[in-house]
Each structure stands twice: as C-alpha cells, then as structure tokens.
Design brief:
about 290 residues, alpha+beta, Structural Genomics Hypothetical 15.5 Kd Protein In mrcA-pckA Intergenic Region, Chain A, Alpha-Beta Plaits, 4-stranded antiparallel beta sheet, 8 helices, about 20% helix, elongated
Length: about 290
C-alpha cells in the first residue's frame, strides 16, 4: 500500500479503533499480525485511509467503534491489567460492558486504591498515560509517623530512591490531616510503586494509598468497586484538541459513538466469569 500524506499511521488507526494502545499496536504490526487490504504489513511507517480494510489476526477491525470512557474506584487487592492468570480479579472484571475491550489507562499497584480510568480509545489512553502529557495524578497517602518540614521538602523537590539512580521529579506535597498523618501528593510521573518507595526512603512507610484525581477527573463519591461513564466535558478535558468536536454532538473526532450515562449513576460490578467481587472479599475476610 502506498503511503499518503493525508492518511493516518496504521498504529494510530488501530489504537483509535480500540484494538490496543499505540505501543501494543506497533508490536502487532511488526510481529506480522496485521493486514491492510489483504496484504501483510510490517512497516510502522505505513499509513491508511478511511476506506482501507484492516485485519488483525485475519479478523476485520471496525473503524468506527463505540467509544467508552470509564472512571473506576479500584479496591485494594485488584490488579490494574486486562488479564493476569495469577490474579483473582482485574479492573476489567469490575466493569461489566460486553465486548467493550477496555484497557486501563496506567496502573495502580494491587495494594493501592482509588481512581483508575479505562477506555477503548487508544488516543485517550495515550493522553492519560504518556509522560510527555504531564497529566498530574493526585494521591492521599496515610503514613506512619509525622514527617518533618525538611522531609516534606525532600519529597517535593525530588529524591533518589534506594534502587534507582534518577531522582524523582518535583511533586506537590501537602499535609492535609494529622493523627494519622495524611499527605496529599501530586505526581507527574509514574514509576513502579513510586510513592511507597519514596516514603520508605524518608522513613515514613505507607499505611494506605488512595488516588483521588487523574488530571481534571475526580474520584468523587464512587465507592470501592463502583464505576461510572465520564461525561463529554471530562473526556474533552483530557483530549483537549478534540474538546470542541466532542461538545454538542454524538460522535468523537474519530467517528465512533461515545457511550455515556445520562443519569451519571455509579455502577456496581455484576457477577462475572470469576464470581462476585463482594462475595469473594467477604469470604476472604473470614
């Protein structure tokens, strides 16, 4: 297929169709799993037009999928991935939308709680997760002991973790409650278990960690395990460049219908293939 300046890169088209993230789409292409108009394509520079037919694993990709944007309050003990054979429950298990092919926008470690966004819109996932977007994430962190002002400044200015040579990026650090000490931290990067490692480094281990905000999106009053659809203003505030196109119509800039809840109501996870979440956790607590 000839590359055209007016076309869209194949990996972006796959992400926009909700097949995967852009990065994973690149892997699909280079591993020989993608065809365009019946021809195998392995070059990442390939572009496609709206009329081209794309197949992944010999199955045609819908170019105008229904787009879902979800806010979930992840409970402790649930993993932030699509599938993990060692995990009892994943965040995707808690959102009961048939055939949506949702992926989590980033991760919260299994012991942490709070807001995680899910979508089948690859551009949205990219905006939320990619470091270049500098989308701040806000956490309420309950710690043991009472950190001194000098310790808080170390956390805010950046510090070198025991198992890393790069100092952490500057963060916003504020004590919002004492006895117990609760610190609000706003991070603009997402290293593995970063806050827990930062607090271990300064001698104030984490007792509880809850993410309460992702960019402009608030956790609000969602209970653990509950989820809701983001509204158009929330989606637009993340995508920014498509915000105008999202308002006042029923389609996104890429042409797919946006699924949303008119009542804004929170949803509890239904019984799924791995059983009811609340029942499992009650059993585990006994």
């Amino acid at each position: 297929m000839e590359e055209e300046s007016r076309g869209e890169r194949l990996q972006k088209a796959l992400a926009a169709a909700g097949v995967s993230s852009r990065r994973n789409a690149e892997v699909l292409i280079t591993s020989g799993r993608v065809k365009v108009n019946g021809k195998l394509v392995t070059q990442l520079g390939t572009t496609v037009s709206d009329t081209d037919v794309i197949l992944v694993d010999n199955k045609q990709v819908s170019r105008k999928p229904k787009l879902y944007y979800i806010a979930l309050n992840k409970p402790a003990g649930v993993v932030s991935t699509v599938y993990d054979r060692h995990a009892e429950t994943t965040v995707v298990d808690l959102v009961d939308i048939p055939n949506a092919r949702l992926v989590p926008c980033g991760r919260l470690d299994m012991d942490s709680e709070g807001l995680i966004l899910l979508s089948n819109d690859g551009d949205f996932v990219h905006k939320v997760t990619h470091p270049s977007q500098s989308l701040g994430k806000t956490y309420h962190v309950t710690v043991f002991g009472g950190p001194e002002p000098t310790t808080l400044r170390r956390l805010a200015n950046g510090l070198t973790l025991d198992d890393d040579t790069r100092p952490t990026a500057p963060a916003e650090v504020t004590v919002i409650h004492r006895r117990p000490t609760v610190i609000e931290m706003v991070l603009h990067e997402g290293r593995n278990r970063q806050i827990r490692r930062m607090m271990d480094t300064v001698g104030h281990p984490v007792e509880r960690l809850v993410r309460v905000k992702v960019g402009p999106i608030l956790l609000g009053d969602l209970r653990p395990g509950e989820w809701r659809y983001l509204d158009r203003n929330e989606v637009g505030s993340i995508l920014q460049d498509t915000a105008t196109k999202l308002s006042g119509n029923n389609t996104s800039a890429r042409g797919g219908d946006i699924e949303r809840a008119s009542d804004g109501a929170a949803r509890r996870p239904r019984t799924g293939p791995r059983g009811d979440y609340e029942t499992r956790n009650r059993s585990r607590a006994r």
